[in-house]
Amino acid sequence: MSEFLETPDRQTLEAWDDKYVWHPFTPHSVYRSERPLTVVGGEGNYLIDIDGNRYLDGVASIWCNTFGHRRPEIDAAVRAQLDKIAHATMLGNATVPSILLAKRMVEIAPQGLDKVFFSDNGSTASEIALKMAYQYMQQRENPSPKKTKFLALANAYNGDTIGAVSVGGVDVFHDRFRPMLFDVIRAPSPYAFRCAACGIDGPTQIGRQCGGGCTDAIERLMREHAEELVAVIIEPGFQGAGGMITYPDGYFKKLRALCDELDILLIFDEVAVGMGRSGHMFAAQKEGVTPDLLCLAKMLTGGYLPVAATMSSDKIYEAFLGKPEEARTFYHGHTFTGNPLGCAAALAVLDIFQKEDVLAEVRRKIDILNEGLTGLVGLKHVGDVRTYGLAAGIELVAEDGFSAFESSERRGMKVCAHAREKGVFLRPLGDVIILMPPLSITDDEIHTLIEAVRYGIETEFGA
Fold first, then answer.
1. 327: CB partners within 8 A, 6+ apart
2. What's the pTM value of the predicted model, to 2 decimals?
3. Cα 383 to Cα 25: distance, rounded to the nearest angstrom
4. Which of 37, 194, 260, 419 reaches 20 to 30 Å from 321, CA-CA?
């Protein structure tokens, strides 16, 4: 373990961390008291801290390390690309890795997604999709200048740029910025556990679904606002940062049919669930639906480097064609668009999927995860267990089995801190314990993950 124990020592690094670093999504008044890790290395599905302790990475370093850490094939691909070039602009030029990656992505994507616009993270992938959709409606063959609004769900999270925050619906993240944002039409979330329409009908059951009221509500809103709607933007599979909230069966097929009928575009934000998490390469494929625009990031490069992609249909792309002086161009870009190092990592990730039949293994592991989670149902302070693919959310509740804790109690963080005592690193969303392991997690590690959660809950609340 000595290769990870470098100077300066832990105390010095922690002091410098407190003095100089502003961490994302982190209340610094309690940051140090919650014993943050100082990570110096990784190996397989494990993080290694400065003291040499190893922790199973139960959230894939915030949902992005597809095959864990230091995967030899990805390491080698990045090193090989370094021998050629690290970065070159794509503004009016091309790079070989970005061309190869775009071709591979179109070949495996749902049929009809034919163009790839690269950027650098999930927020920008969503921002680009919104801007593309808006501009498309203004300059397509039959322009629709009245179409200027978007529909999004309560509890939605599509990133942290201004457009992405505008369509976001997680109050604690987004409400304070409302005066800065454009208005959206807001549909209800399919949050069955806390939905007045659906209600709570008996004990917690894995796979509890919205009773359908949310589907009826979104249809009413789409029909009412059809003439002004550009697009519906939605996270297929589950609402991630909203707390792992899943959708009722048939929701996305209904949404696709409504979009087709009412001349509204459909945007899928697959930043959290794309690249195999669902047991399919894309959640769109699992749902049997092709959106007009699809956003990817996180697991695209195996969590190695920041590359994102917004995939588009040819129909949308062609509306941007014309003479330069017509200004139909999509005037949006990033310095590091299509970065060669990141594209090389992504190509290596796709190679692993192809060579190892990863998706079949993921589907097998999904069954193991779901079976193991049944052991948490019935624990006194577990109100709901929600799963989709190789992901789960365990919602903690108070004594009555339903009421939420005060946010000041930090119960989710405390449960995760206890789980770390069992060698598992987790980070909650409020009082929802999130499980989003690397796709490379083993069967034994799945059991370790679940048992660490059980230990954390029982330690925090008493067995």
1. none
2. 0.95
3. 25
4. 260
Residues 80 and 46 in one domain: no
Beta-bridge partner residues of 238:
246
Which tokens sit at 220?
A: 């009413």
pLDDT of residue 206: 66
Residues comprising the chain, all counted: 463
For position 413, which CATH number holds?
3.90.1150.10
65 and 97 assigned to the same domain: no
Residues 85 and 65 in one domain: no
> What is the DSSP-derived secondary structure letter of residue 181?
S
217-228 confidence digits (pLDDT tens): 999 999 999 999
Is residue 291 exposed (0-12), middle (13-18) or buried (19+ Cβ within 10 Å)?
A: buried
Residues 159 and 290 in one domain: yes
The neighbouring-strand residues paired with 393 are 386, 434
Q: Are residues 133 and 277 in the same domain?
A: yes
Per-residue pLDDT band at 318 (split at 50, 70, 90): very high
**Euclidean distance between CA atoms 138 and 148, whole angstroms:** 9
Domain, as residue range, for 286: 76-356
Under DSSP, is residue 198 helix (H, G, I), strand (E, B) or coil?
Answer: coil
Question: Is it true that the peptide bond before 72 is cis, omega within 30 degrees of 0?
Answer: no
What's the confidence (pLDDT) of residue 202? 47
User: Which pair of structure tokens corresponds to residue 428?
Assistant: 């909650």
Looking at the structure, tell me whether residues 253 and 350 fall in a common domain.
Answer: yes
396/129 Cα distance (integer angstroms): 34
- Domain end: 356, 384, 410, which one? 356
Residue at a domain's end among 318, 334, 356:
356
d(CA 136, CA 144): 9
d(CA 266, CA 252): 10
* Strands 382-387 vs 392-396: parallel, antiparallel or unpaired: antiparallel
Residues 265 and 384 reside in one and the same domain? no
**SS3 of residue 207 by DSSP:** coil
Name every residue whose Cβ is closer than 8 Å to that of residue 302 and which is 6 or more positions away in sequence.
64, 65, 66, 67, 71, 74, 345, 346, 348, 349
